[in-house]
Amino acid sequence: MNYVHCVFATKGRAQLIRDPEPLWAYLRGIARNRGFDIIAIGGTDNHVHLILSVPAGMHLVELVRDLKANSSRFMKANVPGFSWQDGYAAISVSPSQLEVVRQYIAGQEEHHRTRTFDEEFLTLLDKAGVRYDREHALAE
Predict the structure, then answer these.
(1) CA gap 76, 87 in Å, rounded
(2) How many of the other CB atoms lie within 10 Å of CB of 140?
(3) How far is CA 89 from CA 17, 78, 132, in A?
(4) Which of 38, 45, 48, 58 has the most Cβ atoms closer than 10 angstroms to its Cβ?
(5) 3-class SS of residue 37
(6) Are the CB atoms for 89 and 9 separated by under 8 Å?
(7) Looking at residue 130, what DSSP letter applies?
């Protein structure tokens, strides 16, 4: 089993996720139907964090594509103009660090009292040792 911390935002960082629980439930349903698990989910009004439990033989790019495409259709039914940004971040999580990442995701509301999504995102990439082009990483 592979564990992946996955992050993606709304297009333009638009604050469109006003009632997150239905979206979280929908994302969990997509995962269940595709045969993988979402171990943790959270975020704010403009982004989502997930810990995905990806079984061997499944391709992360396909799973994230399905999560984003299907949840975007779901959200557009209630929030006209909703869409996710292009791309996403995916960072491998050691089983020994699952609880740490789960707590981090649970604390999203608290984190974002003092930092923007963009600040959080770049810090997350830096801590994971991900090389990136700042302009590309913040492209909406």
Answers:
(1) 19
(2) 12
(3) 19, 26, 11
(4) 48
(5) strand
(6) no
(7) -
